[in-house]
Write a structure and sequence with these properties.
The chain is of the alpha/beta class and 397 residues long. It contains 17 helices and eleven strands. The strands form three sheets. Strands 3-2-1-4-5-6 form a six-stranded parallel sheet, sandwiched between helices.
């Protein structure tokens, strides 16, 4: 049995921060029912979607869910929604600040209706504080959380880190909060409100990168691919010199340094006082970089990675996205999976990053719009096919 089989989630999320949260819980077995307006949530139509098809952006963020269309702008739609709420353990929403309250569906209302409800809300800047009404997207949260300021090179402007730490990172934080509230509910019988702000999540990711701030009370600089005073941590060029032909080396101990020297055929430098101590290596940074680069430039990033890593030197080739989706290691671990989607055919996408020894993982394709509307309304509210058809005729579902 999947770990969260008995957990029912009412998913009102859109775009990424919320959908990533509910998808992860769905991967772990939760029954996720996605409530969408009759036209679909905005993510279905994002990033150049082809006519008649959901966007791949939507597909990779909404696996393991069922879709129910419901017009919450209508009085009848809201009434149906209020009938559904007591059938679920968790509600997750990431609308702009105040939307749920204006619909009459805020936590104060729904917790009266269902005291056991765990109501998770994801906002850019939370529901209080000077910025709480500001709208937010991923890179805005990364800018506000400090991530952009430390990404890039010292002589270049701040740069987006690339991974959606502000969106999916916030969704993972929200999933942790939901599970904590669920465990507490087993003891108390009461639900509660779970709030995660995107800015807060990015700041949490920054806690180690901000070490210089704690020590010197000064803004942490951009360091490119290096770590302050930690030679030879850096990115080294490989053959044939393409945009991603690099290997990243990160070592911290003398044992690792000596293993590096043996691998690059410089055992003669083992014990050399110019390089043995970290402080000395820092004084000879350019020499160290040139020495390692001479070796890596003569090899592909894969040959360099396997030689170094096989000798105990922590490193990795720079995987581009094509490398990632075709990586045999990730495929063997079930982190890259092929999913059959009714519109797109086979979609190769990331799977579930969490493995549980006693709980199977199943990846099901993202739902088509409203594909479970009739089924859910019948199973949970006892409505007939005729009832649902009448709702459709009135544009309620």
């Amino acid at each position: 049995m999947a770990a969260l089989t008995r957990l029912r989630i009412l998913d009102l999320t859109q775009f990424e921060a919320g959908t990533a949260c509910t998808e992860l819980l769905g991967f772990l077995g939760a029954q996720v029912v996605k409530i969408e307006p009759p036209r679909g949530e905005p993510g279905r139509h994002a990033f150049g979607v082809k006519p008649g098809k959901d966007s791949l952006y939507f597909v990779v963020l909404n696996a393991n869910k069922r879709s129910v269309t419901l017009n919450l702008q209508s009085e009848e739609g809201r009434a149906l929604f209020l009938r559904l709420v007591p059938q679920f353990d968790v509600l997750v929403e990431n609308f702009a600040y105040g939307v749920m309250e204006r619909l009459g569906l805020g936590y104060a209302t729904l917790s009266q209706l269902h005291p056991g409800l765990i109501y998770a809300t994801i906002k850019g800047f939370g529901t209080y504080g000077p910025y709480h009404e500001y709208k937010c997207f991923d890179t805005i949260a990364q800018a506000a959380g400090g991530a952009l300021s430390v990404t890039g090179f010292p002589d270049s402007p701040p740069c987006s880190p690339g991974p959606t730490l502000g969106d999916t990172g916030t969704g993972v934080h929200a999933a942790v909060g939901i599970l904590a509230a669920y465990i507490q509910r087993q003891q108390t019988g009461r639900g509660q409100r779970v709030e995660v702000a995107m800015q807060d999540a990015v700041v949490n990711f920054m806690r180690v990168r901000m070490l210089g701030q704690y020590i010197a009370n000064m803004a942490v600089p951009r360091l490119g691919n290096t770590v302050a005073q930690m030679v030879p941590i850096d990115l080294y060029p490989c053959d044939p010199g393409g945009a991603n032909d690099f290997v990243y080396i990160f070592l911290t101990t003398l044992e690792m340094w000596n293993a590096l020297l043996r691998t690059i055929d410089r055992s003669d430098l083992i014990g050399d006082p110019r390089y043995t101590e970290l402080a000395a290596r820092n004084q000879h940074r350019d020499e160290v970089f040139a020495m390692i680069s001479e070796w890596t430039r003569a090899r592909s990033k894969w040959d360099a990675m396997h030689a170094l890593a096989g000798s105990g030197v922590p490193c990795s080739a720079v995987f581009d996205t094509n490398d990632v989706v075709n990586d045999p290691h990730l495929q063997e671990r079930g982190m890259i999976v092929d999913v059959d989607h009714p519109q797109h055919g086979t979609v190769r996408m990331p799977g579930c990053p969490v493995q549980l020894s006693e709980s199977p993982r199943e990846i099901r394709p993202a739902p088509l719009l409203g594909d479970a509307t009739a089924e859910v309304l019948h199973d949970l509210l006892g409505m007939s096919a005729g009832d649902v058809q009448q709702l459709r005729s009135r544009q309620v579902v």
